[in-house]
Amino acid sequence: MAPSIARRIDPAHTSSILRSLLDTAAGEYLTMGEIVDALGGRGFGILLVLFGLLNAIPAPVPGLSTVLGLPLLILSWQVARGLEHPWLPKRLAQRQIARTQLVRMANAARRIRPFERLFKPRLNFLVTRTAQRFIGLACLLMSILIVLPIWMGNWPPAIGIVFFGLAIAKGDGVAAILGIVAGVVAVAIVTAVLLAALHAFKLFA
Questions:
Q1: Cα–Cα distance between 86 and 75 in angstroms, integer?
Q2: pLDDT value at position 204?
């Protein structure tokens, strides 16, 4: 993305960032690389929130969550490694996201804005640099669940990643706890779906 767009992104409030990005960008599509370039300066937290929201919204195209989950895999791995700056491989960075999908995500972000005010720095021991590497591992596991082709299996882990992203962005240990709870629920749901599918397969095999 052009540097001028990155400079014009409104840094005042996390839930307004995507709308600012849409307002300053031209065209019907944005690439994943443009989003990371524009927002990466705010750290991994905001990127986890935004890509988590993108995966939490029901996709109009089957299999889209598999594609949209790939940036989360890469970013989560980078958080787990303790890297300072986010980046995407060139091929993935060139993938385009329709503006209409981003508008839906911006609307979802606006709806959670009142809840975002509840998050603030606290329980700092859960969001230290070392703790964030464990958060990255948890997000990596949930990203794997997102890319699995399981019907409606993407939104529980995506919500967990949103909480973890808020934990990093806001320095809020409570958000990290909520992310852990959402992660456990996500694993339980996906496990139940897989076991049910296996049972059905054995019945009709």
A1: 7
A2: 79
Q: What residue has token string 């975002």?
A: 116
Residues of the chain where predicted confidence (pLDDT) is lower than 50? 1-12
Give the Å distances, CA to CA, from 156 to 32, 93, 129, 137: 22, 25, 25, 17
Residue 134 identity: F
* Contact status, residue 125 vs residue 173, Cβ threshold 8 Å: yes
Q: How many helices (H) and strands (E) does the chain have?
A: 11, 2
Q: What angle do CA 157, 160, 165 make, to 5 degrees?
A: 125
- Give the pLDDT confidence score for residue 35 in this predicted structure: 76
What is the CA angle 150-44-74, rounded to 5? 45
Tell me which DSSP letter residue 117 carries.
T
d(CA 83, CA 77): 9
66 class by beta-carbon count within 10 Å (0-12 exposed, 13-18 middle, 19+ buried): middle
Apex 48 CA angle, 47 and 49, nearest 5 = 90
Q: Return the H-helix or E-strand segment holding 169.
A: helix 155-170
